[in-house]
Design goal:
It is built from six helices and ten strands; from the N terminus they run βαααααβββαββββββ. The strands form two sheets. Strands 1, 2, 3, 4, 5, 6 and 7 form a seven-stranded antiparallel β-sheet that branches. The chain has a three-stranded antiparallel β-sheet with strand order 8-9-10, with no helix packed on it. It is 33% helix and 30% strand. The protein starts with a strand and ends with a strand. It has three domains: 90 residues, no CATH class; 88 residues, no CATH class; 33 residues, no CATH class. By secondary structure, the protein is α+β, with helices and mostly antiparallel strands. The protein is globular, with a radius of gyration of 22 Å. Helix 1 packs across helix 5 and helix 3 crosses helix 5.
Length: 235
């Protein structure tokens, strides 16, 4: 089985320079969600994720020989290509969820308030390698940001203790692209790692903890066939 974990690495010395990058990404995501929703009849029957993304990209991103339906390129000049595709995929996922809820509401007799599409989300951009992110050395990276109305490369220092922890514990793991995130006044690169784990052949007990919104956590122990053999609520 695969185990997915994530670790964040603090960026040293910057507090506000990334704000415009986050702002323009979220604005672009909202714009793309409206475009996807308007084009949903032509999107919904496309089963392959990449084909869906390509279909929307052809509508919003022009080339020398392609006229677009939406003014994405004019609104978001020089928007990095990999970031644009990531935003398109995220927009498709969010609109798909909304459309699914709308369909359930319709099939259930339109009871209650109809679901509405929320186009403002607190999403963070994924920084794809070479296009948005390059590792310089163990404690330094270059990231592409939106600064002074242009997309530019910025070299940043990474907190040594965070980088060393990943180096010690995740050197053999498959590393995904980092996500630029913010917590309080600090900015981080959050890395996701995939590890393959071989389970023992004898009977396994699955344990899980569901963290509550307020202060309760539910702990459960379950056999592979779904039988619950233990449960505890921690307040």
């Amino acid at each position: 089985m695969q185990v997915l974990t994530s670790y964040k690495v603090k960026i040293i010395g910057y507090n506000s320079i990334f704000e415009n990058t986050l702002k323009i990404y979220r604005e672009a995501l909202s714009y793309l969600m409206n475009a996807v929703n308007a084009e949903w009849d032509s999107v919904k029957d496309i089963t392959h994720a990449n084909e869906r993304m390509n279909h929307i990209e052809r509508l919003v991103h022009g080339t020398k020989n392609r006229v677009v339906t939406y003014e994405f390129d004019e609104r978001y000049y020089k928007f990095p290509s990999y970031l644009r595709r990531s935003a398109i995929n995220e927009a498709i996922g969010k609109v798909s969820s909304y459309r699914s809820n709308l369909e359930k509401w319709t099939n259930n007799g339109r009871k209650g308030k109809a679901p509405s599409i929320q186009t403002k989300h607190y999403s963070y951009p994924a920084l794809f390698r070479d296009n948005m992110y390059m590792r310089v050395d163990d404690y330094t990276a270059s990231v592409k940001i939106y600064h002074q109305n242009d997309w530019v490369w910025l070299r940043v220092k990474l907190r040594k203790s965070d980088a060393d922890y990943i180096s010690r514990h995740k050197s053999q793991s498959e590393e995904s692209v980092p996500t630029l995130t913010k917590s309080g006044k600090n900015w981080y690169l959050r890395f996701a790692f995939i590890d393959k784990v071989e389970l023992a052949k004898e009977q396994n007990v699955i344990t899980a903890v569901d963290i509550g919104i307020n202060n309760a956590a539910t702990c459960s122990a379950m056999l592979p066939d779904g039988t619950i053999i233990g449960r505890k609520i921690i307040s």
